Amino acid sequence: MIIEDVIEFLKKVPPFQSLEDAELKRIAEGISMEFYPKGLSILNQDGPASEYLRIIKKGGVKVFIKSNDDEEIVIDYRSEGDSFGFLSLIGGDRSRANVVAVEDTIAYLINKKTMSSLLDSNPAFTEFFLKSFLNKYIDKTYKEMHNKSLLYGGGDKLLFTTPVGELATKDVTTASKDITIKEAAGIMSEKRISSLVIVDSEGIPAGIVTDRDFRDKVVSKNRDVKDKISSIMSVSLIKAEAREYCFEALLKMIRYSIHHLIVVDEGRLKGIITNHDLMMLQGTSPISIAREIESQQTIEGLVPPSRKINTIISILLKEGAKASNITRIITEINDRLIRNILEIAERKYGAPPVDYCWIAFGSEGRKEQTFKTDQDNAIIYDNPELEKDEVEIRKYFSEFTRFVRDALVACGFPMCPADFMASNARWCQSLNVWKEYFSRWINNPTPEALLMSLIFFDFRPIHGNLKLAEDLRSYLEKHLKNQNIFLAKMAGIITKNRPPLGFFKSFIVEKSGEHKDALNLKLRGIGPIVDIARLFALERGVHDTSTLERIKVLKDKHPVISELGAELEQAFEFISLLRVHHQIEQIESSVPPDNFINPDRLSNLEKKSLKESFQLILKVQDAIVEIYRAGMVN
After folding, report:
1. Does residue 11 sit within a domain?
2. 233 and 300, same structural domain?
């Protein structure tokens, strides 16, 4: 090391910049330097105390702790000029956090003796570390994370931390599948229970019967009560593993419209959990809203429960839910609402003249919807046998889709300003026409074709003959093979949407207008990650549409995601959760929710995390440019 270089560096680093030259020279003469390769653990939580204050000369580190349930809680990311190890050095007993190099890092090391001398003789130096440091990076961070549920989660997190096995009723009544319906009814009456688990000769759950089964399959059908109970039991058992969290059980109950869930531990019966158990656990349950939606027979009846959907978001936030937890539950409930509307429409207009599949795209297609957004939907219908049938089909779906569109508006889903809705005849077409659309967009990737691809290639089936959507997805995946020009042009489009981060890591905000001094989290933060995942998914034939599901699958299929996928997942979760918190605050203040956030209103931790997320996106976008550079065109 050259002493003069160290002195010049320290003169730019607070609080060393306040020291006299002679003091800086003395410190520089005693400094050592270390190199930490990317991924190296420098300090370990509850491990030996640090023997040095480390000041980063080049590179960066992540400071984090592990909670009791092994959840990683990021405290800070630190880069050039930042220091770490102070608390551990002064405390002398143990390291308070984990510190890991997130890139190849070089640090200057100042020993404890020198630091103690500086703290004793320089009041300004002492104040910086003992007041500014503690308040900025520790006390304030924990308080914010607890109060805002950001990165850490506050309030009662039982739904997301309680294993199903702990809540399941242990004293489960079982019966052999060889008993009669009458005998089963007698057991349930005697025990005063609403469900009975049916087991085979080895005690393995084989099915379940509930009060509803007796009502729907025995009484209403006038079935002989001497028949075996196995003739009416539900054999397609939806089970929960004892180690799964209650959140997963909640999702299964909503998805499969069931109220009892068998809990197993390595195949053996552990217990049973009911929707009532989950409602008691979390107070107000999304299950109750899903059930209310399911029970309605009219559009007017669907309006009140649809207005309750947004309330779920604030409940889940208070329980420490991740953004992906929230969107999965909201997706299940919104899907149920849409299916009910479509079933009401089918009863009103009669059976459709041909099989159809209702598809969603946009955030709904990616299962990433939180608050209600514009409608983004379409219809794929089966290819008509005769040309004259087309007239009848179009007449039916014209009235049908307008009814559904208006019903969704009544339930809080505004019409799409660009008219990307099934009520637009262009987006209500036969399977063959949809294949022609996709083929034309891929073979002739004009700017408009690329826009359509970005929108429609995220389609997801919601209701009807799902095989139509599966056929279209298979056609898309097959047709995209070796379409390097199309993929290169898509890469060129998506890499132009850069995160709003300047050369010196400053945020680039709106200079004027309604959103002056703010940045668009959805368009410039979430959008680029969505685009990245979509591009690589189309390239590698991944059929999933959810951004996080795409990234998960791509970790084994794409080198860029193999290296940076975990960080992209964290960035997506963080920016999405930041956006949801912002929108909740707006709603609670009676302000319509939007995607614009003023970074000056963020905490230092949030700013730093957002900048790190933007830098990661830029890094992946640069990698895409390198991959597709030869085929990119303006």
Report:
1. yes
2. no
* Distance, CA of 136 to CA of 14 (rounded, Å): 14
What rounded mean pLDDT belongs to the chain? 85
Same-domain status, 237 and 336:
no
Residue 59 CA to residue 80 CA, distance in Å, equals 6
pLDDT at 104 over 60: yes
Cα gap 490→523, rounded to integer Å: 17
Same structural domain, 131 and 183: no
The answer to whether residue 471 sits within a structural domain is: no
306 residue type, one letter = S
Average pLDDT (476-486) is 92
Which strands form 72-79's sheet, in the order they lie side by side?
Answer: 41-43, 98-101, 60-66, 72-79
Q: Is a pLDDT exceeding 70 seen at residue 271?
A: yes
Out of 414-428, 441-455, 494-508, pick the least confident. Answer: 494-508
Task: Give the CB-side neighbour count of residue 240, counting CA atoms within 13 A.
Answer: 30
> What is the domain range of residue 67?
3-148
Tell me, what DSSP letter sits at residue 138? I
Kindly state whether residues 351 and 236 are assigned to the same domain: no
Please state, as a whole number, how many other Cβ atoms lie within 10 Å of the Cβ of residue 448: 10
* Rounded distance between C-alpha atoms, residue 551 and residue 559, angstroms: 12
Instruction: With respect to residue 492, please indicate whether it lies within any of the assigned structural domains.
Output: yes
pLDDT digits (tens, 9 = 90+) for 196-230: 888 888 778 888 888 878 888 888 888 888 999 98
Sign of CA dihedral 117, 120, 125, 127: positive
* 30 and 141 fall within a common domain: yes
Residue whose C-alpha is closest to residue 397's, from 416, 412, 411, 377: 377
Task: Quote the pLDDT of residue 422.
Answer: 96
pLDDT at 140: 38
Please answer whether residues 226 and 180 qualify as being in contact, where contact means their C-beta atoms are separated by less than 8 angstroms. Answer: yes
Report the alpha-carbon distance of residue 264 to residue 240 in Å, rounded.
Answer: 6
Domain boundary among 148, 173, 206: 148
Within this chain, do residues 137 and 184 fall inside the same structural domain, yes or no?
A: no
- Going by the DSSP 8-state scheme, the letter that residue 196 receives in this structure is E
Q: Is 269 in the same domain as 288?
A: no
The reply to whether omega before 205 is within 30° of 0 (cis) is no
Query: What does the pLDDT read at residue 386?
Result: 80
- Strands 428-430 and 60-66, bridge-based pairing: unpaired
Closest CA to 76 of 546, 633, 609: 609
Q: Which residues touch 585 (CB under 8 Å, ≥6 apart)?
A: none
Contact status, residue 261 vs residue 238, Cβ threshold 8 Å: yes
- Radius of gyration over alpha carbons of the chain, in Å? 29
Structure tokens at 596: 């614009």
- Nearest by Cα to 458 from 445, 469, 443: 469
The total of other beta-carbon atoms located within 10 Å of residue 91's CB is: 12
CA 251 – CA 258 distance, rounded (Å): 10
CA distance 110 to 103: 21
> Cα(419)–Cα(427) distance, rounded to whole angstroms?
9
